[in-house]
What does this fold into?
Amino acid sequence: MDLNLTPSEKEFRDEFRAWLGENVPAEWAGGGAGSEDRAEYVEYLRAWQRKLYDGGWAGISWPKEFGGRGATLVEQAVFQEELARAGAPQLIGTIGLSLVGPTIIALGTEEQKARYLPKILSGEEIWCQGFSEPNAGSDVAALGTKAVRDGEEFVVNGQKIWTSFAQMADWCLLLVRTDSEAPKHKGLTCLLADMRAEGVNVRPLRQMSGDSGFNEVFFSNVRIGASQVLGEVNKGWTTAITALMNERANLGSGIQVVFKRQLEALIARSKTIERDGRPASEDLLVRQKLAQAYLELEILRLNTNRALTTMSKSAVPGAEGSLQKLYWSEMNQRTQQAAQEILGPYGQLKGFDKGTWEYAYLRTRGNTIEAGTSEIQRNIIAERVLGLPKSY
Amino acid sequence: MDFDLSKPQKLLKESARALLARECGVGRVRELMETETAHDEGLWRALAEQGWTGLSVPEGQGGLGLGLVEMAAVAEEMGRACLPGAFLSTLFASALVERAGSEEQRAKYLEPVAAGELKATVALLEEGASWDADTVKLRATRDGGGFTLYGRKLFVPDAGVADLIVCVARDGDSLVLMPVGRGAEGLSVEATPSMDATRKLYEVTFEGVSVAGSEALGADGDARGALRGALEVATAVLCAEMVGGMQWILDTTVEYAKTRQQFGRPIGSFQAVQHMCADMLLMTESARSAAYYAAWALTEHDPAARAAVSVAKAYCSDAYREVANRGVQVHGGIGFTWEHDLQLYYKRSKSSETLFGDATFHRERIARLVVDEG
It folds into this structure.
């Protein structure tokens, strides 16, 4: 056991830290929380990803031959930590970088790799992921969007929902049903779908937080070339699992640093707002809540590091991702509730700290639902890690 | 970065599991908890023969001189076995002697500890039951060249079997550490029966106990620092022990959920039960991350070690109790019986929760580090 970074990991960190020191843009001044879907913010984020790309820092986990750095899992975690430490903006192309790209690398044709990978890295093309449907949420393999073969094309009809980034995406990793007669997991196909194609309609869904991070996407007689199949026809479930494994393999190293900055802001705030005539930070109950938030976040960091070690040795993403997702999503809700308790009615104001606390409290409500509900994660843990009998 | 036990560390842990399964099966634990001190001389010898009583004692004093990660690996297995007796108390006292003692004092106490010939404990808590050493009131009155102790210590673990009791006392504004041998004149040790019968607690009264000036530990000044350091070590090791207890409960409960049938199916196929088991796993693994990180950080003298210890103890205190709760709940009626071994761990989770400070205590420590100094 040695939790220190190795010399080469340190070298990697120092190099990236130095680069960030010279390249992180000024914080976006365009508005408060909840305004993230504005066009100018999207452009700000695109420019940031382009800068990373030009510096050779986009898609570092990808193999070198596809424009990445072949970074180890630990280096990827260091990368995320340094981004957060530097206060860097989020990566707008995250679906492409962490989910679609690795899946194309694993299962794509040479043409697909050449066509899509460079633009994922540069942020020139943004991707979204079209899996969930109104009647296929946790049971995603029950989806009903149909693709019917017509010569060298598929004709797609149906609806996707909860599609993050669809409002700005150029492409979609789209899971459709190509064989209605087969058992539900065996009639699916994964397509690389052009979001600008005729018949694609995106309707933003307004979240309770007020912003529109996700969308409904309607497909009406959308024609997609057969060369756009990723993996094999009717083996779309394999492709989807490859994508989800890659998504879950991203253990939350990045998110953890975002949480750290929020907690630091909360601690700073607790020193300036009052409770019973003295700084809230001197109140014993407030101190308990802050310390609990700190220790839970610290455990997220440690669990992440342990999972990195486990995954580095096993080379296959296992159920670590489910444990991580379950932990951070519930932790984040508890911490934002603690923030609300500490800030009192100020926490609900849209004009207090630019509404960050009001927004964060509402946004975290979605955390235990998106990317696999807590219930689904617990099912996975119970059945795949603990070996309990299947419940369905 | 490698957050996993090394091969030798894994081997050590496996050998600890095997030895404890052989020498300290649950039947033996039950026999020992019914005795006055829960001490088993034969078992103690067996631990000493493995070198474990001196595992983290420096080699110069006859120990193995290993780090706290190795100690944590062995302690985890001790927690899994619910090992009764004075191991942890002796480790705490040894860590204190190692930090506060002179060369001669270290030789005098640590060599027999390593050889398995000396069991020890630290008498710290008083009526206020605080783990904050600043609250210590028991006076060491200067008396010629030495000290005389008057007062009462409470919740002293394993005092009934300890050959040496290190009494934390006050000399004016400073703390002093007073080694008192078993049977010293003016010393009385009274059992205070409590929930966890595998870890006995005592009231220790000092009615004019004399300690020679040359015997006092940490006479050169930093008794407070030595005590803090020793408490950190003992706390980290206790956390590892708690992880072992959680793992036993998890394994036992999952096994039961797979075999116990109701409504014609194993209860482990019901999501209500599955989700409790999943939470138990998450808590156990989180506790493990925290406990081993604390042990590692202390070994490395990492500046983050102090916070790491409090994070571990705050988390483990709540998590062990919760894991034990869910374990009993999944078992249903049988889990609530005296007959089922869950009761041993359920009680150990409670006694471990308060030992060296509960979650509330350690959260306040964290607040001092990250709110006040942060």
Summary: Residues 223-259 of chain B form the longest helix (37 residues). Chain B touches chain A through 52 residues (CB under 8 Å). The beta strands of chain B are 120-123, 139-143, 146-157, 164-171, 174-181, 187-191, 201-211, 261-262, 265-266.
